């Protein structure tokens, strides 16, 4: 399965992706928003394998894509959308981008593609996401794609010995459908 945007190709993760994922997940800048102190080949192979196993589900409830730049293909992150079960009309999205590619609009483009995928392909009613309150770039991405902040959950994640707060964002199908300009460059 492939989703294309103006600048990106989102494709299924595969076993060969582990090296690129390990490279950015080991970056100290990336790690500031995660509980891990570091990553190993084993950690990343397990991370990727859990998504590869989901690819054969029928019906499928979780989709995780490698975010790549075409040309000589470069993997710069991953993104996904997840439902609790096959009948769910609500799902959440997530994304991560290698720090070398931050502030270039790639996270916004990938997140927008996941929302379009959720509303157009999966026929969802509501899509939500969460991010740490201090991750300004992440919550700006969510706002750029039309999501509204619904609240703040206090001390939801223990990261590097400190409890962190999270924002919850969401967008509804009728809000999405009223803003067609958001999806004009996405090919599902």
Protein architecture, described:
This protein has 188 residues and is α+β, with helices and mostly antiparallel strands. The chain has one domain (2-183): Gcn5-related N-acetyltransferase (GNAT) (Aminopeptidase, 3-Layer(aba) Sandwich). Helix content is 30%, strand content 34%. The protein is built from six helices and eight strands. The protein has helices at residues 18-25, 28-31, 41-54, 106-121, 136-144, 173-177; strands at 2-4, 9-12, 62-69, 74-83, 90-97, 126-132, 148-159, 162-172. Strands 1-2-3-4-5-6-8-7 form an eight-stranded mixed β-sheet, with helices on both faces. A hairpin with a 2-residue loop joins strand 7 and strand 8. Helix 1 (18-25) crosses helix 3.
Please render the helix and strand layout as text.
Layout: E1 2-4, E2 9-12, H1 18-25, H2 28-31, H3 41-54, E3 62-69, E4 74-83, E5 90-97, H4 106-121, E6 126-132, H5 136-144, E7 148-159, E8 162-172, H6 173-177
Parallel strand pairs: 5-6
Antiparallel strand pairs: 1-2, 2-3, 3-4, 4-5, 6-8, 7-8
């Amino acid at each position: 399965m492939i989703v294309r945007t103006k600048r990106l190709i989102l494709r299924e993760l595969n076993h060969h992706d582990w090296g690129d994922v390990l490279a950015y997940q080991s970056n100290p800048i990336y790690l500031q928003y995660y509980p891990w102190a570091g990553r190993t080949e084993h950690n990343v192979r397990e991370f990727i394998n859990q998504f590869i196993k989901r690819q054969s589900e029928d019906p499928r409830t979780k989709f995780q894509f490698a975010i790549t730049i075409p040309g000589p293909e470069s993997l710069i992150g991953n993104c996904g959308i997840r439902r609790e079960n096959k009948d769910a009309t609500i799902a959440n999205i997530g994304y991560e981008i290698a720090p070398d590619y931050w502030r270039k609009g790639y996270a916004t483009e990938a997140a927008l593609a996941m929302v379009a995928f959720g509303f157009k392909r999966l026929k969802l009613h509501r899509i939500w996401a969460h991010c740490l309150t201090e991750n300004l770039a992440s919550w700006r991405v969510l706002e750029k794609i039309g999501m509204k902040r619904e609240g703040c959950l206090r001390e939801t994640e223990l990261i590097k010995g400190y409890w962190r707060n999270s924002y919850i964002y969401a967008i509804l199908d009728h809000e999405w459908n009223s803003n067609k300009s958001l999806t004009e460059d996405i090919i599902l």
